[in-house]
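Q: Hi! First time doing this. I have a protein sequence and I read that you can turn it into a structure. Is that right? Here it is:
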Amino acid sequence: METTTDALLAQVTPYAEAGSIRPGRQTDAIDGVCPRIVAEPTTGPELSEILQWASTERLAVGVRGGGTKLTWGRCPGPIDVALSTARLNKVVEHRHGDLTATIEAGATLTQVNEVLGIHRQWLPLDPPWPERATVGGVVATNDSGPSRHWHGAPRDLIIGVTLARPDGALAKAGGIVVKNVAGYDLSRLMTGAFGSLGVIVDATFKVTPVAVSSRTLTVDLDSIEALEPALAAVMASSLTPSAVELACPPARLLVRFQSVDQAVEKQAEEARRLMEAATNGRVLVAADEAEREVWADHASRWDVDGTLLKVSTLPRALVSTLTWLRDQCDRQGLQAAAQGRAGLAVFDVRLDGPAEAQGKLIDALRDRLPIGDGSVVVRRASQDVREVVDPWGPLGDGEGVMQLIKQRFDPDLRLNSGRGPV
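A: Yes, that's right. Below is the predicted 3D structure, encoded as structure tokens:
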């Protein structure tokens, strides 16, 4: 017989009286699934004790941060306890001399960079909605933005982690300084695991100085095909852009330089000459407020509903993949827009149209990008779309390893059930 919500709350009366645990509401839903109980611990040990209680009672636990990625991955199963990191939101320590910082999982990127900015440093992660996206959520999904071109993804920046295992035990991995170590890299294992192996309490990262100066070239092109010579000109040069972004339609390339004034001005001018020689596009150089507007407009494409795919391909196949997508969408009556890391051939595609047609397109794209040549992951989609296509797609030889790791960390399959790849 299932224990009632009131009876469960009675088992953790001290936390309920302190406001750390309460009954779930519809506004607490994770991808449409309303939890019976919501827990908002304020410390790592408190989080650990709540998880230990949930494990003893064999309760299914879902983890949430700022709520920006609740519809990513597969639809979750029933959720007894929604574990929120909202009150774990401090920068624990900023070692500005060592360029590292330890940050609690519930801190938003905006909050973090306000603190680091006191010493003119920042955590170089710029995914969408930084005012809501939390450090724990960004690590759990390995999400990134334009700065990934130069600074890397969360997996490249994380050097240590404190986590609570599904049974409540606290564990630490990595260190607080940047160095190479031997052994099992638990920090990176947690990165991209979608919270299915443990709950991140805090993480330690490499941080970087804030650039003195910045310029962005916007190259407006006649077609997707024109991206190829424009991108080749930048990538084959000696220039060192901090971001190289594509967007279409309409076809556009954004190339950003961040450094000291003299270096930025010189590189921006050289890039402008290269772009004008390689394309017939309109090339503009933006700085200050005009530059901020360029990047705000670029980020605003995320604010539109629709299916969201993360597509990775080989650099040489980037433009041909984009043109294939355009042509297939035209034939099948779908609307599509793409944007992302042009220099890394990792980009997002937003789809709109009938669920069945979307599923056929995603399957065909996965056939075109088999394991080794690329991947297609459904980040966000309606339930109708997720019923006709698996969000994760083929996992190849790695699937067996993933299942073994999940079994080792969470043998009862109670943490973020269904959200991750396995």
